Amino acid sequence: MIEVVNLSKHYGDKKAVDGISFKAESGEILGFLGPNGAGKSTTMNILTGYISSTDGKALIDGIDILENPIKAKQKIGYLPEIPPLYVDMTVKEYLCYVYDLKKCKLPRNTHLADICRLVKIENVYNRIIKNLSKGYKQRVGLAQALVGNPPVLILDEPTVGLDPNQIIEIRTLIKKLGRNHTVILSSHILSEVQAVCDRIVVINQGKIVADDTAQNLATSLSSDHRLLVRIDGPKDEVEALIKGISGVEKVIVNTEVEKGVWEYRIEAEENVDIRRELFKRLAQRNWYLLSSRSYELSLEDIFLKLTMGEELSSAEKSKLGNKGGNK
Amino acid sequence: MGAIFRKEMLGYFTSPVGYIFLGVFFAASGFFFYTTSLSAGSTDLSQLFVMLYFALLILVPILTMRSFSEEKKQKTDQGLLTAPVSLGGIVAGKFFSAFVVYLMGISSTVIYALTVSVYAKPDWSVIAGNITGLILLGASFVALGIFISSLTENQMVAAILSMVAILGLYILQVVANYINVEWISTALRSIAFSSRYYTFTNGILDMSNVLFFISAVVVFLFLTVRVLEKKRWD
Q1: B230/A contact by beta carbon, under 8 A
Q2: Which parts of A90-171 are beta strand (E)?
Q3: Partner of A29 for a Cys bridge, out of A183, A208, A323, B29, CB 3.0 to 4.6 A?
Q4: Tens of pLDDT along B42-58?
Q5: Nearest CA distance, A25 vs chain B (angstrom)
Q6: Which CATH architecture describes the domain A223-294?
Q7: Quick check: B30 contacting A, CB < 8 Å?
């Protein structure tokens, strides 16, 4: 449905997007993940024809956005980072305008009513957009993208600035839309894309650093082989003891959280569960395991590792490095 | 184009801009009408039309200043430029909406003509020529103003630059009077909008002047399309 081939965008010497390629099949929700300034919005702006690429191609349903922009744009509903709202209009006036602008053929009143019901803005339909809360404005922005029922939806950080309830609502809505639309959504929040997307493309400094299913990415990031434990016992000896357990790759002593109690970060080999062994050995020495939980490697950690040249553990490499679109 | 035209028209009359334009235009033209025609006891409206150049100098920029600059500032251009519409359609929609509001304003001159006709029979052909000139002059200013507003994000900057440009197009004629070299002064006069316009108010309907203003409209609108297009490539 969407095919991006070797897309680049240069601003002078700066490469905002540097030769990225990916595909989104129809009916797929693709998450575009990356820190601020990674090139997410630039890519989306190219896909929607707002700016043009320096090099490469972007095809929407086989139509090149540069060669046949009007036909390609008809297939896209776009919610930019800042929703393009005319704040002096009422919601109704605005949506009617968008309906006209997109030369929509569907029956107007029922179509707009359906959209309003879907994004839950019926109760503000006759209010002036200026006076709406951020959450409602965002939803009007989403409604605007849905007008004309385009097969492709491109949503740039759709949940930014919303409260937790609204975030959950919008996520549910996007999931629902994903059943009969191809959705590309960008975010810098890992849990968000994990919750919503089928596939995740991680982008940094204009390059794709990972391209994988949400499930694979999730398991690589939250498995039992990383532990955060608090142990009441002499620091150095405890550290030595943990290191002695087979399968442990790395032990980092964090801080003394209470008097005599230290926090340790343990990384074990993949598929090795050291919790029972750890408990047993500590019990033998009469040291106390006060808490133990597995910690997730956050997106930020992955980024630091992927981009700052830090060493990835073997497990992460196999999960992230060799999959799909990594270049 | 239709959608943009309707939206712009709505915008002019849900914000103060349309009312300010019409109100001030009616007041200014009424004042000029009173001083040049009514109180002078003349049925010749040409002086009124001469003065109106200066009313347009202030008022047309107010009409066009928001056109594209506001879209850019509020980031609504992102919705506009990613909609399945051609750039030409967008620019045409913006132009015609401002132009229609402008026509509403200058329609008052018809009332003035009817007013003097109560007292004595005016020269209708001259008045028709004057109004044609005013329509064409306004159209070219509207196109110029829209072009300038596509260059900046700031509507005040757009307004001031447009005023300066319109003033400049008048000053060319004044400068021409001080230049003794024949061909330079002729050249300046032929691109000075005011000297083109004043041939209408002198009662001469010259097709070359009609074509001049129409080409000016086309050129400025074309440049506006180019500016929008260039923005995509930056």
Answers
A1: no
A2: 152-156
A3: A183
A4: 888 888 999 999 999 99
A5: 22
A6: 2-Layer Sandwich (3.30)
A7: no
